[in-house]
Automatic annotation (TrEMBL):
Biological processes annotated in GO: cellulose microfibril organization; plant-type cell wall cellulose biosynthetic process
Domain called COBRA C-terminal: residue spans: 222-433
Domain of life where this protein originates: Eukaryota
Entry keyword set: Glycoprotein, Signal
High-level lineage: Eukaryota, Viridiplantae, Streptophyta, Embryophyta, Bryophyta
InterPro entries per record: COB_C (IPR056900), COBRA_pln (IPR006918)
Name this polypeptide is given: COBRA-like protein
Source species: Ceratodon purpureus (Fire moss)
Keyword rRNA-binding: no
Pfam families per record: COB_C, COBRA
Stated family: Belongs to the COBRA family.
Signal peptide region: 1-25
Length: 461
């Protein structure tokens, strides 16, 4: 009895320390070097300015930019204009009335550049362009974690001493979340020719780094976690009002949306309403406006719920089933990802329906080796569909037991889960499903035995 109490205390301390670490360094303890860097390479002087290749690298391990995509903005230092852009466009041309013979692409002091949609004509494309502003996380697919376009800037100097660097860079996705550094001149980029036999170099290069803060992007969490285990029939639900509070769970349809604006601030509809719309008009009008989310009403009001079920306990392994449910009827999540932190990820064995990579030990300052990233299998479950019958993805995962394995004290539950890079609200530790008390210890042993048999049979088949 005393031992188990000491153990409890120790476990509580471990959790406390882990939480302090998180509070201290932010959630980015899992990705200390995560940032988006933007590089401008001036590759040609023109009559009144320069041509540059602008490249954006997503160096974040698990945070991506999903549709409707990124918006890159800045403020010109002088009276620059953009004569031409290939591989992207500006949202507004602005006032070009002082130009006569040739018309610039954009005359705004604060241009906002967006990506082109896939399928534009070949002569309007550049390498790494035209993905509708979607940028993969570095872990999911390094090849599509880069975006690039070409820009011809005029009405400015055309030597490296007269150029004024653009100021006040912003990166919207399309909402806020990122803060960007000042542009800084860095060593010139060297480009290698396709056959690798010759290098050319930029005339001048500058860099901007943008980093993400969840608090800047959302006031409230966007996902929550529920727990269950084979040894206890209780399902521990998401904390209530984890993301918001239900406003009117008896709403009647049709939903009073005018031009995509939820005038009654209703925000949720009843899942069992017979008149559920199959699509909403909300997101159709302006593809760059943040969609007005419309959820199925729940006690937590989170668009995303993650359920972690401890499913089976074998002799050497244990198995968890993860289900991610979308309760947002106005949004599909493409290229979704899930980051999970649990001590046993050091001895992780298999994920059956999700792609998987450990986050362990990336970068020189990585301080944790107990987390992993999961994402969908291409063309199978890489899109988490809008709420409804298909609005979930699931996989079972298998751990090889390490020496600290126990079913006690909620050890089998993760300490942190992040969906698309944002921390999810967890049930409090005192609510974890508990093991039946001593008399039924035999039952657990039996379950274990049965699980082992089932597992052996499954392996034989
Ligand atoms: C500008 O060009 C000169 C001559 O090529 C070079 O010496 C100088 O370092 C350059 N300055 C910058 C800021 O690139
Ligand atoms: C920088 O950009 C932001 C957003 O576009 C704007 O609110 C802010 O006033 C700008 N600051 C300067 C100094 O231009
Ligand atoms: C400039 O961008 C490159 C490309 O990603 C990056 O590796 C480098 O660290 C950046 N340099 C600075 C000084 O930010
Ligand atoms: C929803 O309707 C039920 C029964 O009609 C009622 O008991 C409940 O209070 C209503 N809830 C709200 C939030 O109006
Ligand atoms: C959606 O748009 C159609 C036609 O554009 C319109 O008839 C319908 O009322 C709209 N539905 C909602 C819920 O706004
Ligand atoms: C989600 O994707 C499906 C299949 O591509 C599509 O039919 C549906 O309209 C999409 N829903 C939204 C809200 O974009
Ligand atoms: C994982 O991290 C812990 C604590 O930092 C350390 O004791 C352990 O040796 C590491 N394990 C591996 C496999 O790197
Ligand atoms: C866990 O993994 C580490 C590194 O792969 C290995 O050295 C260790 O023996 C494993 N522990 C168990 C209990 O399998
Ligand atoms: C299941 O876990 C809950 C805590 O979430 C606990 O109150 C309950 O007693 C457990 N049930 C059994 C049968 O042990």
């Amino acid at each position: 009895m005393r031992i188990s109490r000491v153990y409890c205390l120790a476990l509580a301390l471990v959790f406390l320390v882990a939480d302090l670490q998180h509070a201290d360094a932010g959630f980015d303890i899992l990705d200390p070097n995560g940032k988006i860097s933007i590089k401008w390479d001036v590759v040609e002087w023109t009559a009144d300015g320069y041509r540059a290749i602008v490249t954006m690298y997503n160096q974040q391990l698990y945070r991506h930019i999903q549709a409707p995509g990124w918006i890159m903005g800045w403020t010109w230092s002088k009276k620059e204009v953009i004569w031409n852009i290939i591989g992207s466009e500006t949202r507004e041309q602005g006032d070009c009335s002082k130009w006569k013979s040739a018309l610039p692409h954009c005359c705004k002091k604060t241009p906002e550049v967006i990506d082109l949609l896939p399928g534009v004509p070949y002569n309007q494309q550049t390498a790494n362009c035209c993905r509708g502003g979607v940028l993969s996380s570095f872990m999911q697919d390094p090849a599509t974690s880069v975006a690039s376009y070409q820009i011809v800037v005029g009405n400015t100097g055309n030597t490296n001493t007269t150029i004024q660097l653009p100021k006040n860079f912003t990166l919207m996705t399309p909402g806020p979340g990122y803060t960007c550094s000042k542009a800084a001149v860095v060593p010139k980029t060297r480009f290698l020719s396709a056959d690798g036999r010759r290098t050319t170099e930029a005339f001048m290069t500058w860099n901007i780094t943008c980093s993400y803060t969840q608090q800047l992007a959302n006031k409230a969490p966007t996902c929550c976690v529920s727990f269950s285990a084979f040894y206890n029939e209780t399902i521990v639900p998401c904390p209530s009002c984890a993301c918001d509070c239900p406003k009117n769970s008896n709403a009647t349809l049709p939903i009073p949306l005018a031009n995509g604006v939820d005038t009654n601030n209703q925000r949720c509809i009843n899942r069992h309403d017979p008149h559920l719309p199959t699509t909403l008009n909300a997101t159709k009008n302006n593809p760059l406006s943040t969609p007005q989310d419309m959820l199925f009403c729940t006690n937590d009001m989170c668009p995303i719920k993650i359920h972690w079920h401890i499913k089976l306990n074998y002799q050497e392994y244990w198995r968890v089933k993860i289900t991610i449910t979308n309760r947002d009827i106005s949004r599909n999540y493409t290229l979704w990802n899930l980051v999970a932190q649990h001590p046993n990820f050091q001895n992780f064995t298999e994920s059956f329906s999700f792609s998987y990579r450990p986050l362990n030990g990336y970068g020189p300052t990585a301080t944790v080796n107990n987390s992993a990233i999961f994402w969908g299998v291409k063309f199978y479950n890489d899109m988490l569909m809008q709420a409804g019958p298909n609005g979930n993805v699931q996989s079972e995962i298998l751990f090889r037991k390490d020496s600290s394995f126990t079913l006690n004290n909620g050890w089998g539950f993760p300490s942190h889960l992040l969906f698309n890079g944002d921390e999810c609200a967890m049930p409090t530790a005192d609510q974890y499903p508990t093991l039946p008390s001593s008399s039924s210890g035999l039952r657990v042993a039996m379950t274990t035995l049965v699980s082992m048999l089932v597992f052996s049979v499954a392996f034989l088949l």
